[in-house]
Amino acid sequence: MRRKMQLQKIVKRLNGCCISPFEEKMLFLMLQIILHIKIIPMTKSALQIARATYKPKMPEGLKGNVKIKEGAATQSVRDQEEIKKLFPITYGMPIVTFTGSEGKPGSDTPCNVGVILSGGQAPGGHNVIAGIFDGIKRLHRDSKLYGFILGPGGLIDHQYKELTEAIIDEYRNTGGFDIIGSGRTKLETKEQFDKGLEILKELDIKALVIIGGDDSNTNACVLAEYYASINAGVQVIGCPKTIDGDLKNEQIETSFGFDTACKVYSELIGNIQRDCNSARKYWHFIKVMGRSASHIALECALQTHPNICIVSEEVEAKEWSLDHIIDQIAGVIAKRAEKGLNFGTVIIPEGLIEFIPAMKKLINELNDFLAHNQEEFDLVRRSGKRDYIISKLSPENAEIYASLPETVARQLTLDRDPHGNVQVSLIETEKLLAEMVKKRLDEWSKEGKYNGKFATITHFFGYEGRCAAPSNYDADYCYSLGYTASMLIAAGKTGYMASVRNTTGAAAEWIAGGIPITMMMNMERRHGELKPVIQKALVELEGAPFSYFEDHREKWAIETDYVYPGPIQYFGPTEVCDQPSKTLQLEQKGRIVVQ
Fold first, then answer.
1. What sign does the dihedral 537-538-542-545 (CA atoms) show?
2. Can you give the residue ranges of every domain in the chain?
3. What is the pLDDT of residues 151-185, one digit of tens each?
4. pLDDT for residue 405
5. Can you tell me the distance from the alpha carbon of 12 to that of 14, in angstroms, rounded to the nearest whole number?
6. Higher pLDDT, 426 or 571
7. Which residues, other chains included, contact 414 with Cβ-Cβ below 8 Å and sequence gap of 6+?
8. What is the pLDDT of residue 419?
9. Residue 593 has pLDDT above 50, yes or no
10. Would you give the DSSP letter of residue 498?
């Protein structure tokens, strides 16, 4: 009745258009048909509706009555004595593996669980939560899952909501973290822990799952140790998340979201390369996310075969200067120009600037100077800031700073992040390299060393990949991680990170279990003091992925051997839809699926 009245109002508003009674009746019927046809709800896309029916594949070991198998005692990756002193309760625990057996899993009592999304978004987070939900409900139907709003801050501020089956079903196989939101509040102090414990006790939450990167899981480890030390009765489990791919080891094959993000970026890069090969007049400088490691840049190179890909870890290891990098890029451009190919693509990792030894020294001196002289610097007029900085730096760093384009020099002095470091994502490295390469080519042109045309277009692919609908691999992997977390809780574990291995094989053959977070820890200097943190996994220059790239990059540089991956495939043959990343294929099997 209400809808009929609304339709009648719409028709009355159109009476001024001089429509006949017959036309009025037909319009009324047409509006009824339009509003009653349920093609696609306004709030969902056709893909989202189709993906809602996808049933993630999972390891056989998580099916049936799950049993736990414990290995030998473990130790931290480095600084064993220091880590052991800081984590006397959770240090040295064994790696655990789950094996399935006959019978229906179950628990005599329900278990309420809390979940936190921490840090930047990564595709698949919703499936981790769905896996936790399904796991605890399978153990006992009266178990409840509570999500803390906008990250760790929700735990401290007691902001939460119960995640019911209806809510979970709305978010299965979708991208983003919008089911409860994420935040970057760090859980570091006793006051925060105690404040969080108040709401955990009030909701009768027996376990907390923290879904995050290396810093977030470091906090999870500290929290697990504290709650265990005071017999709080709350377990803490971590899940490995970051598109940067730098949270991994022998037991954690990859962090979730890396696969999807790289496929999104590779699609975009492939599209650019197709355009590049069509117009044949532009060099595209493409920066991709990855501050601390070049895993994304390397994976995208393996997927798309660009003419140039810079790997930060190689730059640091070989102590390349900015000039050396410029010469390398310019050299490839000149060689292609000799063949009449005045176009190409360059992939640049986001954190490159901090891996160039001379630039790192400059940034460190700038960080230190601005930390103590920010107010004075702010008072200097914009037109005089560059000269002011040059006058305050050491001669070596002043020379480097003076050589930088105005825009990049200014970006190096922008507000620091909460850790007091330069915000590398705000530094337009792609524009810096494009501008300096042009300057070098102009010099070579005057010297008769270069005779070509050089025009550039720059790009930065970051947020485009963080909330994409997860690939089949990430949808399966994330659901399995969440379900594994629920089984770790059922096994009474705390201070563990969910682990799913053997993921280049069929999902049924994946191995689910848990790894003590302390096993991944080492001591690093933060804010002037040594602190326990999860060791970041950088690109290994002796590893199979980089070795494969190194063997092929000269060919890719000169030949136009582009690969156009196209969009992520969610439906179709397994060999198209369910492929893991090239990095993982090479690391696990030493080979790569040929495009």
1. positive
2. 76-95+109-257+487-498+516-526, 259-467+542-589
3. 999 999 999 999 999 999 999 999 999 999 999 99
4. 85
5. 5
6. 571
7. 422, 423, 426
8. 57
9. no
10. E
Distance CA 111, CA 207 (A): 8
Q: Could you please report the per-residue DSSP string of 111-129?
A: -EEEEEEBSS--TTHHHHH
The single residue listed with the structure tokens 């790569």 is 592
pLDDT at residue 103, rounded to an integer: 67
Q: How far is the C-alpha of 223 from the C-alpha of 226, rounded, in Å?
A: 5
Tokens standing for residue 437 = 């390469």
SS3 135: helix
- H or E stretch including 544? helix 544-558
How far apart CA 532 and CA 309 sit, in angstroms, is 33
Q: What was the pLDDT predicted at 420?
A: 61
Tell me which residues are annotated as active site: 244
Q: Which two tokens stand for residue 418?
A: 């909460």
Q: Which residues of 418-443 are buried (b: 16+ CB within 10 A; e: fewer)?
A: eeeebebeebbbbbbbbbbbbebbee
**Which stretches does DSSP call E strand in 509-588?**
511-516, 521-526, 529-534
Cα–Cα distance for residue pair 282/493, rounded to 1 Å: 55
Which tokens sit at 203? Answer: 């909701």
Work out the end-to-end distance of the chain between its first and last CA atoms, rounded to an integer number of angstroms.
Answer: 58
CATH architecture of 76-95+109-257+487-498+516-526: 3-Layer(aba) Sandwich (3.40)
Which amino acid is present at 520? M
* Average pLDDT for 314-337: 97
**Assigned token pair, 535:** 């060791």
Q: Which two tokens stand for residue 272?
A: 């650019």
Give the predicted TM-score (pTM) of the model: 0.89
> How is domain 259-467+542-589 classified at the architecture level of CATH?
3-Layer(aba) Sandwich (3.40)
Predicted confidence (pLDDT) per residue in 458-477, tens digit: 999 999 999 999 999 999 99
**CB contact at 8 A, 163 and 132:** no
Tokens 């977030």 belong to residue: 216
